[in-house]
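note to self: dont lose this again. the chain is below, predicted strucutre after it. 380 aa total, dont forget to put it in the shared folder this time
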Amino acid sequence: MLGLGVAAQAAGTLVVTAPALLIPHLHAQGLSLTQAGLLAAAPTAGMVLTLIAWGAVTDRIGERIVIAGGLVLTTLAVAGAWIADHDAMLLGVAFLLAGMTSASTNAASGRVVVGWFPKERRGLAMGIRQMSQPLGVTLAAVTVPTLAETSGIRAALVLPVVLCAVLAVACALGIVDPPRPPVAAAGPAAENPYRSTGFLWRIHAVSVLLVVPQFTLSTYGLVWLVTLGWSTAAAGLLVGASQFVGAVGRILVGVWSDRVGSRVAPLRVVAVSAAAVMAVLALVDVAHLPAAAVVLVVATSVTVADNGLAYTSVAEAAGPRWSGRALGAQNTGQFIAASAVGPGIGALVGLVGFAGSFLLVAVLPVLALPLVPRADRSHD
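---
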Protein backbone atom coordinates (compact mmCIF):
# COMPACT_ATOMS: atom_id res chain seq x y z
CA MET A 1 0.00 0.00 0.00
CA LEU A 2 2.82 2.39 0.90
CA GLY A 3 4.75 1.70 -2.31
CA LEU A 4 1.69 2.21 -4.51
CA GLY A 5 0.74 5.35 -2.60
CA VAL A 6 4.22 6.83 -3.07
CA ALA A 7 4.28 5.91 -6.77
CA ALA A 8 0.80 7.34 -7.42
CA GLN A 9 1.62 10.61 -5.67
CA ALA A 10 4.97 10.85 -7.47
CA ALA A 11 3.19 10.44 -10.82
CA GLY A 12 0.78 13.22 -9.86
CA THR A 13 3.70 15.45 -8.87
CA LEU A 14 5.40 14.72 -12.20
CA VAL A 15 2.27 15.84 -14.06
CA VAL A 16 1.90 19.04 -12.03
CA THR A 17 5.62 19.91 -12.25
CA ALA A 18 6.11 19.23 -15.98
CA PRO A 19 4.45 22.44 -17.34
CA ALA A 20 6.80 24.68 -15.33
CA LEU A 21 9.78 22.88 -16.83
CA LEU A 22 8.39 23.51 -20.31
CA ILE A 23 8.71 27.29 -19.86
CA PRO A 24 12.10 27.64 -21.63
CA HIS A 25 10.83 25.64 -24.63
CA LEU A 26 7.50 27.49 -24.79
CA HIS A 27 9.28 30.84 -24.54
CA ALA A 28 11.67 29.84 -27.33
CA GLN A 29 8.64 28.94 -29.47
CA GLY A 30 7.25 32.46 -29.21
CA LEU A 31 5.19 32.60 -26.02
CA SER A 32 5.93 35.44 -23.64
CA LEU A 33 7.17 34.55 -20.16
CA THR A 34 3.84 35.72 -18.78
CA GLN A 35 1.93 33.35 -21.07
CA ALA A 36 4.28 30.46 -20.33
CA GLY A 37 4.00 31.21 -16.62
CA LEU A 38 0.22 31.05 -16.80
CA LEU A 39 0.44 27.62 -18.45
CA ALA A 40 2.83 26.49 -15.71
CA ALA A 41 0.41 27.68 -13.01
CA ALA A 42 -2.63 25.94 -14.55
CA PRO A 43 -2.12 22.51 -12.86
CA THR A 44 -1.75 24.07 -9.41
CA ALA A 45 -4.91 26.10 -9.96
CA GLY A 46 -6.70 22.93 -10.98
CA MET A 47 -5.59 21.16 -7.81
CA VAL A 48 -6.86 24.00 -5.62
CA LEU A 49 -10.28 23.71 -7.28
CA THR A 50 -10.70 19.98 -6.64
CA LEU A 51 -8.66 18.84 -3.63
CA ILE A 52 -11.50 19.05 -1.11
CA ALA A 53 -13.96 17.50 -3.57
CA TRP A 54 -11.65 14.53 -4.18
CA GLY A 55 -11.28 14.15 -0.43
CA ALA A 56 -15.06 14.04 -0.01
CA VAL A 57 -15.35 11.40 -2.75
CA THR A 58 -12.62 9.35 -1.05
CA ASP A 59 -14.49 9.51 2.26
CA ARG A 60 -17.59 8.21 0.52
CA ILE A 61 -16.39 5.52 -1.90
CA GLY A 62 -12.88 4.58 -0.79
CA GLU A 63 -9.26 5.02 -1.78
CA ARG A 64 -8.72 2.42 -4.50
CA ILE A 65 -11.37 3.73 -6.89
CA VAL A 66 -10.34 7.35 -6.37
CA ILE A 67 -6.62 6.76 -6.93
CA ALA A 68 -7.01 4.41 -9.89
CA GLY A 69 -9.88 6.36 -11.45
CA GLY A 70 -8.15 9.67 -10.88
CA LEU A 71 -5.01 8.40 -12.60
CA VAL A 72 -7.10 7.28 -15.58
CA LEU A 73 -8.55 10.79 -15.85
CA THR A 74 -5.08 12.31 -15.44
CA THR A 75 -3.82 10.08 -18.26
CA LEU A 76 -6.58 11.39 -20.52
CA ALA A 77 -5.87 15.02 -19.53
CA VAL A 78 -2.13 14.73 -20.27
CA ALA A 79 -2.97 12.93 -23.52
CA GLY A 80 -5.08 15.98 -24.33
CA ALA A 81 -2.01 18.16 -23.78
CA TRP A 82 -0.05 15.83 -26.08
CA ILE A 83 -2.69 16.33 -28.78
CA ALA A 84 -2.74 20.11 -28.22
CA ASP A 85 1.03 20.28 -28.83
CA HIS A 86 1.84 24.02 -29.17
CA ASP A 87 -1.72 25.38 -29.12
CA ALA A 88 -1.49 27.57 -26.02
CA MET A 89 -5.23 27.72 -25.33
CA LEU A 90 -5.72 23.96 -25.55
CA LEU A 91 -2.55 23.34 -23.55
CA GLY A 92 -3.85 25.59 -20.79
CA VAL A 93 -7.16 23.72 -20.62
CA ALA A 94 -5.41 20.35 -20.66
CA PHE A 95 -2.95 21.36 -17.91
CA LEU A 96 -5.81 22.73 -15.79
CA LEU A 97 -7.68 19.42 -16.16
CA ALA A 98 -4.49 17.51 -15.38
CA GLY A 99 -4.17 19.38 -12.10
CA MET A 100 -7.84 18.87 -11.26
CA THR A 101 -7.60 15.11 -11.84
CA SER A 102 -4.15 14.48 -10.35
CA ALA A 103 -5.37 15.96 -7.07
CA SER A 104 -7.14 12.64 -6.56
CA THR A 105 -3.88 11.04 -5.45
CA ASN A 106 -3.15 13.57 -2.70
CA ALA A 107 -5.77 12.88 -0.08
CA ALA A 108 -6.48 9.31 -1.12
CA SER A 109 -2.87 8.10 -0.97
CA GLY A 110 -2.48 9.72 2.43
CA ARG A 111 -5.58 7.92 3.67
CA VAL A 112 -4.19 4.58 2.50
CA VAL A 113 -1.06 5.10 4.60
CA VAL A 114 -2.96 6.30 7.66
CA GLY A 115 -5.48 3.49 7.34
CA TRP A 116 -3.03 0.59 7.01
CA PHE A 117 -0.31 1.63 9.46
CA PRO A 118 -0.78 1.62 13.25
CA LYS A 119 -0.27 4.89 15.07
CA GLU A 120 3.16 3.93 16.43
CA ARG A 121 4.54 3.45 12.89
CA ARG A 122 2.47 6.03 11.06
CA GLY A 123 4.97 8.88 11.32
CA LEU A 124 7.66 6.82 9.58
CA ALA A 125 5.21 5.61 6.92
CA MET A 126 3.93 9.11 6.23
CA GLY A 127 7.49 10.42 6.09
CA ILE A 128 8.24 7.87 3.37
CA ARG A 129 5.02 8.80 1.58
CA GLN A 130 6.06 12.46 1.64
CA MET A 131 9.16 11.54 -0.41
CA SER A 132 6.85 11.24 -3.40
CA GLN A 133 7.05 14.99 -4.02
CA PRO A 134 10.85 15.26 -4.45
CA LEU A 135 10.81 12.01 -6.42
CA GLY A 136 8.22 13.40 -8.84
CA VAL A 137 10.02 16.74 -9.14
CA THR A 138 13.35 15.02 -9.80
CA LEU A 139 11.83 12.72 -12.42
CA ALA A 140 10.33 15.72 -14.18
CA ALA A 141 13.56 17.72 -13.95
CA VAL A 142 15.73 15.06 -15.58
CA THR A 143 13.33 14.27 -18.43
CA VAL A 144 10.96 17.09 -19.37
CA PRO A 145 13.33 19.99 -20.26
CA THR A 146 15.76 17.83 -22.23
CA LEU A 147 13.07 16.03 -24.21
CA ALA A 148 11.21 19.27 -24.92
CA GLU A 149 14.38 20.94 -26.18
CA THR A 150 15.42 18.06 -28.41
CA SER A 151 12.09 16.62 -29.57
CA GLY A 152 9.27 18.98 -28.58
CA ILE A 153 6.40 19.00 -26.10
CA ARG A 154 4.91 15.72 -27.23
CA ALA A 155 8.10 13.78 -26.46
CA ALA A 156 8.28 15.43 -23.03
CA LEU A 157 4.72 14.34 -22.18
CA VAL A 158 5.11 10.67 -23.14
CA LEU A 159 6.49 9.63 -19.74
CA PRO A 160 3.69 11.28 -17.71
CA VAL A 161 1.07 9.63 -19.93
CA VAL A 162 2.64 6.17 -19.74
CA LEU A 163 3.44 6.35 -16.03
CA CYS A 164 -0.08 7.47 -15.07
CA ALA A 165 -1.64 4.76 -17.23
CA VAL A 166 0.56 2.00 -15.80
CA LEU A 167 -0.01 3.12 -12.22
CA ALA A 168 -3.76 3.37 -12.77
CA VAL A 169 -3.77 -0.35 -13.57
CA ALA A 170 -1.34 -1.19 -10.75
CA CYS A 171 -3.36 0.73 -8.15
CA ALA A 172 -6.64 -0.77 -9.36
CA LEU A 173 -5.19 -4.24 -8.90
CA GLY A 174 -2.96 -3.72 -5.87
CA ILE A 175 -4.61 -1.22 -3.53
CA VAL A 176 -6.99 -2.54 -0.91
CA ASP A 177 -9.06 0.02 0.97
CA PRO A 178 -8.15 0.07 4.68
CA PRO A 179 -10.87 -1.11 7.03
CA ARG A 180 -13.29 1.51 8.28
CA PRO A 181 -15.91 1.22 11.01
CA PRO A 182 -19.50 0.83 9.78
CA VAL A 183 -21.56 3.99 9.81
CA ALA A 184 -23.68 2.84 12.73
CA ALA A 185 -20.60 2.06 14.83
CA ALA A 186 -18.55 5.06 13.83
CA GLY A 187 -19.73 7.16 16.74
CA PRO A 188 -17.67 10.34 17.18
CA ALA A 189 -15.58 9.49 14.10
CA ALA A 190 -18.61 10.17 11.92
CA GLU A 191 -19.19 13.63 13.43
CA ASN A 192 -17.87 16.77 11.77
CA PRO A 193 -14.48 17.31 13.48
CA TYR A 194 -14.45 20.95 12.44
CA ARG A 195 -17.44 21.65 14.67
CA SER A 196 -16.41 19.70 17.73
CA THR A 197 -12.96 21.29 18.19
CA GLY A 198 -10.65 23.92 16.74
CA PHE A 199 -7.75 21.45 16.41
CA LEU A 200 -7.95 21.04 12.64
CA TRP A 201 -8.39 24.75 11.99
CA ARG A 202 -5.25 25.44 14.02
CA ILE A 203 -3.17 22.82 12.20
CA HIS A 204 -4.35 24.20 8.84
CA ALA A 205 -3.35 27.73 9.88
CA VAL A 206 0.04 26.56 11.16
CA SER A 207 0.71 24.74 7.87
CA VAL A 208 -0.19 27.79 5.78
CA LEU A 209 2.30 29.89 7.75
CA LEU A 210 5.05 27.25 7.64
CA VAL A 211 4.70 26.55 3.92
CA VAL A 212 5.89 30.08 3.05
CA PRO A 213 9.51 29.53 4.19
CA GLN A 214 9.52 26.18 2.38
CA PHE A 215 8.43 27.61 -0.97
CA THR A 216 10.55 30.72 -0.53
CA LEU A 217 13.64 28.52 -0.54
CA SER A 218 12.48 26.16 -3.28
CA THR A 219 11.52 29.10 -5.51
CA TYR A 220 14.30 31.58 -4.80
CA GLY A 221 17.12 29.48 -3.34
CA LEU A 222 18.80 29.14 -6.72
CA VAL A 223 18.42 32.84 -7.50
CA TRP A 224 19.90 33.73 -4.10
CA LEU A 225 22.95 31.53 -4.66
CA VAL A 226 23.52 33.10 -8.07
CA THR A 227 23.50 36.59 -6.49
CA LEU A 228 26.23 35.32 -4.14
CA GLY A 229 28.39 34.41 -7.12
CA TRP A 230 27.46 30.79 -7.75
CA SER A 231 27.10 29.52 -11.30
CA THR A 232 23.59 28.53 -12.33
CA ALA A 233 24.63 24.90 -12.83
CA ALA A 234 26.28 24.62 -9.40
CA ALA A 235 23.37 26.36 -7.70
CA GLY A 236 20.91 24.03 -9.42
CA LEU A 237 22.83 20.96 -8.23
CA LEU A 238 22.86 22.24 -4.65
CA VAL A 239 19.14 23.04 -4.68
CA GLY A 240 18.39 19.57 -6.05
CA ALA A 241 20.59 17.94 -3.42
CA SER A 242 18.92 19.93 -0.66
CA GLN A 243 15.53 18.59 -1.78
CA PHE A 244 16.76 15.02 -1.29
CA VAL A 245 18.24 15.85 2.11
CA GLY A 246 14.87 17.36 2.99
CA ALA A 247 13.13 14.16 1.90
CA VAL A 248 15.30 12.12 4.25
CA GLY A 249 14.63 14.68 6.96
CA ARG A 250 10.88 14.11 6.61
CA ILE A 251 11.41 10.42 7.35
CA LEU A 252 13.58 11.13 10.40
CA VAL A 253 11.05 13.61 11.80
CA GLY A 254 8.31 11.02 11.25
CA VAL A 255 10.31 8.43 13.20
CA TRP A 256 10.85 11.02 15.93
CA SER A 257 7.10 11.64 16.20
CA ASP A 258 6.51 7.89 16.50
CA ARG A 259 9.09 7.60 19.27
CA VAL A 260 7.68 10.45 21.36
CA GLY A 261 4.07 9.50 20.57
CA SER A 262 3.12 12.99 19.41
CA ARG A 263 2.89 14.99 16.21
CA VAL A 264 2.35 18.46 17.70
CA ALA A 265 5.38 18.44 20.03
CA PRO A 266 7.86 17.95 17.13
CA LEU A 267 5.80 20.41 15.07
CA ARG A 268 6.43 23.07 17.70
CA VAL A 269 10.18 22.40 17.56
CA VAL A 270 10.13 22.58 13.75
CA ALA A 271 8.39 25.98 13.87
CA VAL A 272 11.07 27.39 16.18
CA SER A 273 13.82 25.88 14.02
CA ALA A 274 12.31 27.29 10.81
CA ALA A 275 12.38 30.80 12.25
CA ALA A 276 15.99 30.32 13.34
CA VAL A 277 17.30 29.03 10.00
CA MET A 278 15.60 31.81 8.03
CA ALA A 279 17.24 34.35 10.34
CA VAL A 280 20.62 32.67 9.84
CA LEU A 281 20.13 32.85 6.06
CA ALA A 282 19.58 36.60 6.39
CA LEU A 283 22.81 36.84 8.39
CA VAL A 284 24.72 34.86 5.75
CA ASP A 285 23.42 37.21 3.06
CA VAL A 286 24.34 40.40 4.95
CA ALA A 287 27.76 39.23 6.13
CA HIS A 288 28.60 37.30 2.93
CA LEU A 289 29.58 34.30 5.03
CA PRO A 290 31.11 31.32 3.16
CA ALA A 291 28.62 28.86 4.69
CA ALA A 292 25.78 29.60 2.25
CA ALA A 293 25.65 26.06 0.86
CA VAL A 294 25.50 24.34 4.25
CA VAL A 295 22.99 26.79 5.67
CA LEU A 296 20.71 26.49 2.62
CA VAL A 297 20.71 22.68 2.81
CA VAL A 298 19.93 22.77 6.54
CA ALA A 299 17.25 25.43 6.05
CA THR A 300 15.60 23.47 3.26
CA SER A 301 15.52 20.33 5.42
CA VAL A 302 14.05 22.17 8.39
CA THR A 303 11.39 24.08 6.45
CA VAL A 304 9.95 20.94 4.82
CA ALA A 305 9.94 18.90 8.04
CA ASP A 306 6.49 20.06 9.13
CA ASN A 307 4.66 18.60 6.11
CA GLY A 308 4.47 14.98 7.23
CA LEU A 309 3.79 15.89 10.86
CA ALA A 310 0.87 18.16 10.03
CA TYR A 311 -0.50 15.81 7.37
CA THR A 312 -0.50 12.84 9.74
CA SER A 313 -1.95 14.91 12.56
CA VAL A 314 -4.83 16.09 10.36
CA ALA A 315 -5.68 12.55 9.25
CA GLU A 316 -5.60 11.21 12.81
CA ALA A 317 -7.70 14.05 14.20
CA ALA A 318 -10.29 13.93 11.42
CA GLY A 319 -10.99 10.21 11.79
CA PRO A 320 -11.63 7.59 9.12
CA ARG A 321 -14.81 9.18 7.79
CA TRP A 322 -13.53 12.75 7.50
CA SER A 323 -9.82 12.44 6.75
CA GLY A 324 -10.25 12.72 2.97
CA ARG A 325 -11.95 16.10 3.20
CA ALA A 326 -9.62 17.28 5.96
CA LEU A 327 -6.52 16.33 3.98
CA GLY A 328 -7.99 18.04 0.93
CA ALA A 329 -8.51 21.20 2.96
CA GLN A 330 -4.97 20.92 4.33
CA ASN A 331 -3.44 20.78 0.85
CA THR A 332 -5.73 23.49 -0.50
CA GLY A 333 -4.58 26.01 2.09
CA GLN A 334 -0.95 25.15 1.46
CA PHE A 335 -1.25 25.44 -2.32
CA ILE A 336 -3.01 28.80 -2.08
CA ALA A 337 -0.26 30.14 0.18
CA ALA A 338 2.44 28.60 -2.01
CA SER A 339 1.00 30.22 -5.14
CA ALA A 340 1.41 33.63 -3.50
CA VAL A 341 5.08 33.05 -2.70
CA GLY A 342 6.37 33.55 -6.26
CA PRO A 343 5.04 37.05 -6.90
CA GLY A 344 4.95 38.06 -3.23
CA ILE A 345 8.51 37.18 -2.27
CA GLY A 346 9.73 38.38 -5.65
CA ALA A 347 8.27 41.82 -4.97
CA LEU A 348 9.63 41.75 -1.42
CA VAL A 349 13.16 40.97 -2.61
CA GLY A 350 12.91 43.94 -4.96
CA LEU A 351 12.02 46.20 -2.03
CA VAL A 352 14.21 44.99 0.86
CA GLY A 353 16.63 42.48 -0.69
CA PHE A 354 17.13 38.85 0.21
CA ALA A 355 18.27 39.48 3.78
CA GLY A 356 15.23 41.59 4.60
CA SER A 357 12.93 39.09 2.89
CA PHE A 358 14.40 36.15 4.82
CA LEU A 359 13.94 38.04 8.09
CA LEU A 360 10.32 38.88 7.32
CA VAL A 361 9.63 35.26 6.33
CA ALA A 362 11.22 34.17 9.64
CA VAL A 363 8.41 36.00 11.45
CA LEU A 364 5.78 33.59 10.06
CA PRO A 365 6.95 30.47 11.97
CA VAL A 366 7.02 32.62 15.12
CA LEU A 367 3.38 33.55 14.48
CA ALA A 368 2.60 29.87 13.91
CA LEU A 369 4.06 28.78 17.25
CA PRO A 370 1.15 29.80 19.55
CA LEU A 371 -1.30 28.23 17.10
CA VAL A 372 0.21 24.74 17.45
CA PRO A 373 -2.18 22.74 19.68
CA ARG A 374 -0.83 21.70 23.07
CA ALA A 375 -1.90 18.08 22.70
CA ASP A 376 -2.61 15.64 19.88
CA ARG A 377 -6.12 14.60 18.93
CA SER A 378 -6.69 11.15 17.49
CA HIS A 379 -9.50 8.67 16.85
CA ASP A 380 -7.14 5.70 17.32
